[in-house]
Design brief:
Largest sheet: 3 strands, antiparallel
Structural class: alpha+beta
Number of domains: 1
Order of helices and strands: HEEHEEEHEEHHH
Number of helices: 6
Length: 164
């Protein structure tokens, strides 16, 4: 996303002003944010394809469940699926289309966090809700990297950041 230095209108300023509340702790800014399914697919690709800079050092996809997914095959890549007109690998597309990808934590460990975890619309909602604001801003501004993508995937699967 390219940042521009455009002037905001008084209507936009008033709308933004109405979203700021003064609290005893400071200023609470309530701004609704919509991230496209393509943007989330991009971040998931970054997580799984980022190797040591993404989630590849601990995460491996295992099982693809189409559940009630509505899928369309990418005409350019036989094994990819379409997300809003753009092709993505199944591990990035299926969770956004109503399906589930099971992710295995390949790090050593015996507790609950090391069991296979579903990546689907619900876990993505959870991941976005617990994602640290700095990393969420990186996704919004499209300045995310493997580290951001890794933290996003951990938040989706575990509800917190375990690694790094």
């Amino acid at each position: 996303m390219t940042q521009t230095n455009k002037m905001i209108t008084s209507k936009e300023a008033n709308a933004a002003y109405d979203k700021v509340q003064v609290t005893p702790q400071g200023f609470q800014v309530n701004v609704p944010i919509t991230l496209s399914r393509q943007r989330i697919a991009d971040v998931l690709c970054n997580a799984f394809e980022g190797g040591a800079y993404g989630s590849g050092y601990w995460a491996q996809t295992d099982l693809y469940e189409f559940d009630n997914a509505t899928v369309e095959q990418d005409p350019k890549h036989e094994s990819w699926l379409m997300v809003d007109g753009e092709g993505y690998p199944p591990y990035a597309a299926l969770p956004l289309l109503g399906g589930t990808v099971t992710v295995i934590n390949i790090e050593d460990g015996d507790d609950e966090k090391f069991k296979p975890s579903p990546l689907n619309e619900e876990s993505i909602k959870r991941g976005l809700s617990v994602l640290a604001i700095k990393h969420l801003n990186d996704i919004i501004e499209e300045t995310d990297d493997g580290n951001t993508a890794d933290i996003f995937l951990q938040c989706c699967l575990f509800g917190e950041v375990i690694y790094g």
